Amino acid sequence: xxxxVVLGSTGSIGGSTLxxxxxxxxxxxxxxxxxxxxxxxLFNQCLQFKPGYAVLLEEKSAQHLRERLxxxxxxxxxxxxxAALAQVAALPEADTVMAAIVGAAGLVPTxxxxxxxxxxLLANKETLVMAGNVFMEAIRSSGATLLPIxxxxxxxxxxxxxxYDGDLSRSGVRRILLTASGGPFRNYSxxxxxxxxxxxxxxxxxxxxxxxxxxxxxxxxxxxxxVIEAHWLFNASADLIQVVVHPQxxxxxxxxxxxxxxxxxxxxxxxxxxxxxxxxxxxxxxxGVAALDLFKVATMNFEAPDLIRFPCLSLxxxxxxxxxxxxxxLNAANEIAVAAFLDKQIAFLAIPRLIExxxxxxxxxxxxxxxxxxxxxxxxxxxxxxxxx
Length: 389
Ligand code: NAD
Ligand code: MG
Description:
Layout: E1 2-7, H1 12-22, E2 28-34, H2 39-49, E3 53-56, H3 59-71, E4 77-80, H4 82-89, E5 96-99, H5 107-115, E6 119-122, H6 125-142, E7 145-148, H7 151-159, E8 173-180, H8 190-193, H9 198-201, H10 211-219, H11 221-234, E9 241-245, E10 251-257, E11 262-266, H12 272-280, H13 294-297, H14 311-322, H15 326-342, H16 350-361, H17 370-388
Parallel strand pairs: 1-2, 1-5, 2-3, 3-4, 5-6, 6-7, 8-9
Antiparallel strand pairs: 8-10, 10-11
Helix pairs in contact: 2-3, 4-5, 5-6, 6-11, 6-15, 10-15, 11-14, 14-15, 14-16, 15-16, 15-17, 16-17
This protein binds nicotinamide-adenine-dinucleotide and magnesium ion.
């Protein structure tokens, strides 16, 4: 029986995780669930999974949840605040932590789980983008297990040799091919891109996801963040990571070897597959995902990414090559820009412009510890907000 903490249980990944868990009551026990503000959904999840702990960000919503649980006769302990997220991520009884909070808010609790030596199922890619070296060092020194949940990275993990030791060339790997759907605006002209709305950006053709990652997919910043994520996970330099646009999202990524072999992982676009893989690793369990029907897929297409129409991808490569605090600055500026776009304060094409402005405004510093990352994040947010006004 694995004791599981789900950080961000009310989100898209959180919900898919609980769906897989509910299929295997003999294998997993929910120890803690956490959410930002969604009291009602968290209450229902508590009734179904009976966790020892539930966490909400604000005391008012935590009090509301406490009262609801008491009147339902359930004894889940309700905690509140960012410190409580880190606290549940490091509970001694916890075996596995699903890191599924969106954005920079996920960094500290995920890093805490890493320092505590947990098995970490990493969906929160922002942790690696912001603090890749600090996080990977925490994993190494605590002996924690890190399993990528992002579908592309999960595919690469599956296509690399078992027990891959972080040396691509020693494993005979020539390149990593990171697939991208191209998002809802893949075929839009620059003129059309000027007028797209948050609703259009959030209507992804293949995946149902939270709003932030949906906008990132539409701008292709998601793929940029994933290039940086792949760099840290697999110790791959930027030159060895090639983005391939594959609109059907059936091939989740590929690894090319020096002998000409290319290994891929395929499946229906449903996050329950990588989640089930991570939960049961190294075994396999049912995920609820339908079998892939290749006759229905029929055709698979591939194209090179268009860096002119989707400059966010170039900005991410640029930040990865600059190193140090540059990816944290990129991530912070992107979070501010995406929130402003979702709030209809700025146009879609203003997202890369704002990020570029913030990257140009701030010097890149070395990252020695978490504080260096948090300082860069705070500074980049304040510069971005200043440019929005
Ligand atoms: P979501 O918006 O659906 O859910 C986010 C979760 O985080 C919710 O439970 C929310 O309550 C919680 N949360 C939000 N802000 C918070 C804060 N400030 N403090 C504490 N909790 C907070 O997002 P999602 O689509 O599930 O994505 C979660 C993460 O997984 C992201 O990092 C995303 O990039 C990554 N990811 C998602 C998918 C997907 O298919 N949805 C695929 C790959 C990777
Ligand atoms: Mg992905």
